[in-house]
Amino acid sequence: MIRTERAADGEYRTVTIDRPEVRNALTPYDLDALEAAVADADEPVVLLRGAGSAFCAGADLDAVEALDDPAAFAGHGQRVADAIESADAVVVAGVDGAARGGGVELALACDLRVATLEATFAESGVSFGLFGAWGGTARLPRVVGEGVALDIACSARVVDAEEARAVGLVSRVVSDPSTVAREVAANDPEALATVKRLVRAGARGAQTEPDEREAFARLHGERFGE
Fold first, then answer.
1. What is the DSSP secondary structure assignment for residue 120, as one 8-state letter?
2. Torsion angle, alpha carbons of 174, 141, 153, 64, to 10
3. What is the pTM of this model?
4. Is residue 2 within 8 Å of residue 50, measured between CB atoms?
5. Helix (H), strand (E) counts: the chain
């Protein structure tokens, strides 16, 4: 189940993966609901959280075991991660508890990742003969570098919040991730969307300087009435 809630001030939307009995593991149905919840947001910021003591355990293993087309399921998760990454809203992963496998990959697709001291991260799939296939082999090295990515992905070890901050997997350790969502949402929505788009493009090697000039001029005109 995916729950959505708009903040009282209307500045951001909270999307909660609400299957605490299975540590918020995701079925194909849940993936579709998650994609829709993020895509339908008209707020400038989305906070992605998990209910209970976990952020997200990744794919529901019962659903994985019953798959007729594993490649299609991997593609399904990749599509949802891509939708989070390309959403107009700035998506903040608020990790409070365990993120495992696909849960780490969904967090990697978000624009900001913040963690509480209770957060832990692990790419545990290799311990039982699988691996995270929702885009994590591409995103993890972009975020933490190749060496650290291989260490995390090949060891299946658990990374705590402080180490996650040290290696760049999260940008902050906070007591309440909603404070970060509110902080980001206090800024101009169009400027936020523009910065997200340009930073994402630049991280993939695009030459963004011409787009920066054009976007800055457009925003300047809107701000100062020129």
1. E
2. 90
3. 0.92
4. no
5. 10, 10
Higher pLDDT, residue 59 or 154? 154
pLDDT at 92: 98
Structure tokens belonging to residue 12: 């951001």
B/e letters for 178-200, b = 16+ CB within 10 Å, e = fewer, are bebbbebbeeebeebbbbbebee
29: CB partners within 8 A, 6+ apart: none
DSSP state of 170: -
CATH of domain 2-183: 3.90.226.10
pLDDT digits (tens, 9 = 90+) for 43-92: 999 999 999 999 999 988 787 777 778 888 889 999 999 999 999 999 99
In the chain, what's the furthest Cα-to-Cα distance?
60
> Are 41 and 83 within 8 A, CB to CB?
no
Residue 24 CA to residue 58 CA, distance in Å, equals 8
Q: How far apart are CA 156 and CA 120, in angstroms?
A: 12
Strands 98-100 and 54-56 come out as parallel
**Edge-to-edge strand order for the sheet containing 159-160?**
54-56, 98-100, 120-122, 159-160
Enumerate the β-bridge partners of residue 40.
none
CA distances from 124 to 131, 138, 143 (A): 7, 17, 18
Q: Could you state, in order of their start, the residue ranges of all structural domains in the chain?
A: 2-183, 188-224
